[in-house]
Amino acid sequence: MTEGVFGRDSGHEQVVFCHDAHTGLKAVIAVHSTALGPALGGTRFHAYASESDALDDVLALSRGMTYKNALAGLDLGGGKAVIIGDPETVKSEALLRAYGRFVQSLGGRYITACDVGTYVRDMDVIARETRFVTGRSRDDGGAGDSSVLTAYGVYQGMRASAEHVWGSPELRGKRVGVEGVGKVGHLLVGHLVEAGCDVVVTDVDERAIERVVAAHPSVEVVPGAAALVGADLDVFAPCALGGVLDDDTVAVLRAKVVCGAANNQLAHPGVEKLLQERGILFAPDYLVNAGGVIQVSDELHGFDFERAKRKVTALYDTARSVFALAADEGVPPVTAADRLAERRIAEISRLKSILTP
């Protein structure tokens, strides 16, 4: 999104600060919009430097979920939550269950799922205290790991981007740089290797690098994000944390396409215009990474993987529509995506004015 997402005056319906001294829980739940339905979005568990940083992150992420869910065609609003702390050291059953109690207290206005630092097994624990949780394990009646279809959706967005830039969705022979090979990134690498791409990766976690190299020995590893951004790439795929695309990054970026799984990749408003001026196609992050929310939302209706995968495959067509609108109106793709999402929110939310028995 291009306007209003980077500040605190972003029209949120509700922001809840959650604290349980006994378990050490400190969390923030942000409900941005319920215009299309309950606010669905994951819970991020991260060692923020301050509560202020956590608040800024959850506000931006929750607003992004409103647009993501709308553009994905879901009857769901946008929300997000963050738990403050290092998940490696402070996460516990008691803390997660305390968090689940706070989610339950919102009465279904917010439905949670996995995000950075939380996993399927965590959702199973949270589900012991609230029914408003998705992304649970198959054994617990859920959809399982949402990273699977998140990565697949990014791959579909990348195919649509390739078609727009090079005239064909074929990715064979393209050199793709993936920053961050964690839950989603390493699965994306699998799709790219299978498609015949030359893949270059980097990650701050050496364990993640070792895992992806063990699975795909052909990948090239470079030391750090700066080296990857400046490399000779066709596609740059940010799959770590947000804010990677700033003025300095765009100035040295050599790829013709940016398409990755990270949320809020634009460091500030105006970066999308810098990308456009340099002839770099930016596939809106909240469009191409919607596979995960599509997967977990399907869980609300009795999960069927093939049905969910068909919906995620359709992100290819949605991306094509966004690129076409951007070209017609002479605006960056993220602006076109915003307009399509806002149009759907306005049209569908208006139906609430029609009273039904």
Automatic annotation (TrEMBL):
Keywords: NAD, Nucleotide-binding, Oxidoreductase
PROSITE patterns with a match to the protein in the record: GLFV_DEHYDROGENASE (PS00074)
Binding site for NAD(+): 180-185
Listed GO biological process terms: amino acid metabolic process
Active-site annotation: 80 (proton donor/acceptor)
Family: Belongs to the Glu/Leu/Phe/Val dehydrogenases family.
Name of the protein in question: Valine dehydrogenase
Natural source organism: Prauserella flavalba
Taxon lineage: Bacteria, Bacillati, Actinomycetota, Actinomycetes, Pseudonocardiales
